[in-house]
Description:
Elements: H1 10-32, H2 38-58, H3 67-89, H4 97-118, H5 123-143, H6 148-168, H7 175-211, H8 234-254, H9 257-276, H10 278-282, H11 293-310
Helix pairs in contact: 1-2, 1-3, 2-3, 3-4, 4-5, 5-6, 5-7, 6-7, 7-8, 7-9, 8-9
Amino acid sequence: MGRAFVPDRRDWLRLAGGLLFAAGAVVLLARKGGSWSSLAVLVTLLVPTVVLLGIGFLAPVDPPVPWRPVYLITGILLVPPTLLVFIDWIGGTPGTALNVGWVFAATAAVATYAALRHATPYTTLLAALALIVSWVSVWEKILGSPSFNTFRWLLFAIGAIYVLLAYLRRADGWHRDLVTAGGVAFVSIGVISAVVVLFVSAFLVGFSSGSGSGVGSGSVGHYVDLRGSPVPSDWWTISLLVEAVGLIMYAARTGRRGPGYVGAVGLGVFALLVGLNIQALASGQSRSTVSGWPLILLIGGGALVVLSFVLRPGALDDVRIVTSRPPDEPPT
Length: 332
């Protein structure tokens, strides 16, 4: 067994072979899955999942080989669909909140094991993302069709838990993945809000065009009545801005690209929401106004830039924002 895992140029064959094997199963299901039984689909997914995870966990951590993380990450990604098909095969309903909850909790457990016992990169992020899905699904079961605002608070809560845990465990390298996952939870609030608002506005514009009513008359998007839609309040808009800027600042300070990408998406969603001026649309008013966010952002951003040049060098050195700590430094 030891000779099989000796690192050499066979590693590249093993890496490519594992990826092609997993891709082949997915492509086969895309073509034939609709006409196959649940058992056939389960076997098609189960085989690459067990093969990739089994070989990945058997491979030694040291010396590192390039294919092992690929095997484990790909295998983890195959766990949710495999378990969902298993539920269908035994006669259950895969899409229920409780089933989705335990499936993604099991996925998070596998990813956590890979992260802690096998030092596999990105598996902490996969575990945290899977737990977000499990968290929301379990609470959906407990609360029973929660409101859209409750759904926002559920995402905000788990995002805050991740950020707090990342701060407490900042000596560990995996804390940065928790920051990224927390950012995903925060930004998802804005993304879902934007999708809902755009869907509702597009529906109303199409409806008004077909019915000839006055709603939506004029240029498209100039006036669309969104009253009654679950638009985000000022609190959610402000929190999205703070979270997006904070993630980008964290990425710039630590050199970690993941939080920066998530923060950039969040900032883009924020610009979309306030650019559409959905608060005005929600109250049945025109969105074409200069007051509010445009002035706040222009004046506030300009003031901060000017202040950065006016302050003497080192004026803010006493303000410490701890983002990381050497592993051998005791916690404070």
